[in-house]
Amino acid sequence: MRSIILHGGAWDIPDDAVDNHHQGVLTAGAIGWDVLKQSGTALDAVELAIKQMEQDPTYDAGRGSFVNRIGEVEMDASIMDGRTFEVGAVAAVQNIFHPISLARRLMERSEHVLLVSEGAARFAREQGIAFCTPEDLLVGRELERWRQIRRIPGYSGKLAFSGAVEEPTHDPSLPGDTVGCVALDDRGNIAAGTSTGGTPNKYPGRVGDSPTIGSGTYALNSAGGASSTGWGEAIIKVVLAKTVVDGIELLGLNPGAAAERAISLLHHRADGYGGVIALDPHGRPGVAWNTPRMARAWMNDTMTEPFAAV
Ligand code: ASP
Prior knowledge:
Structural class: alpha+beta
Number of helices: 9
Radius of gyration: 17 Å
Strand content: 15-25%
Bound molecules: aspartic acid
């Protein structure tokens, strides 16, 4: 069975941003589904779907990314091939449109699995990846959010969408618009990927779960695949994506139950908020989140129309 599932962040997505989030995951899902329908690979479906969301300013990935503490965009991405068990990840990269493609290039053309910052940029240059300007990635909404944060006296990283400082640190209303995708192709191969601009006003060089294999992304043909979103500092502690896949493989749970269990662990063990999507080796989708909203979509051979919701 061919199958694809996507997410576009899990948080208190404001009412006026719901439509864009909904349309964005549908559009990206249609692009990925087209690849699968034409007998393309799960890897291509994941990369192309994520590229679409990276160029969509709705999301915190590629264009539209959050701004860090010194007013710069630093992005993270990872991809995993469940057929070969190969991975590629980049962190704190700047001035490129598609971090997911750089992560894939690293997976396919390097012996390393993770490159950061200047090293990732050097590799991108060697590979002929096109660079862009900071302005190409920065949108007015994020510049305004950043300015608002800078105006809050004593601000220490806790921002609700309203701009108010809130407790606790892992507040579910904290913005988080990371994108992710898991796909299964007609050869039974699973791939998963995740791309993000991280968290708003993060410290320069901060790396979250998204490029951390096992936390942000995981895929293994015989077990399943998953992609996470939410507060990375907590997600890393419970190794969220692999915890979902372990639930499928080792506990015999369906993907929905495995995702629910992993989110419950995120909540209870790490006081964390977020969401996760998954596919099992049969292509059955699963999703769970403990934030007010999560943007999600899926499509597979058992369906006549894609499902999408926020
Ligand atoms: N998980 C991402 C990070 O911590 C943020 C998000 O998903 O919204 O970098």
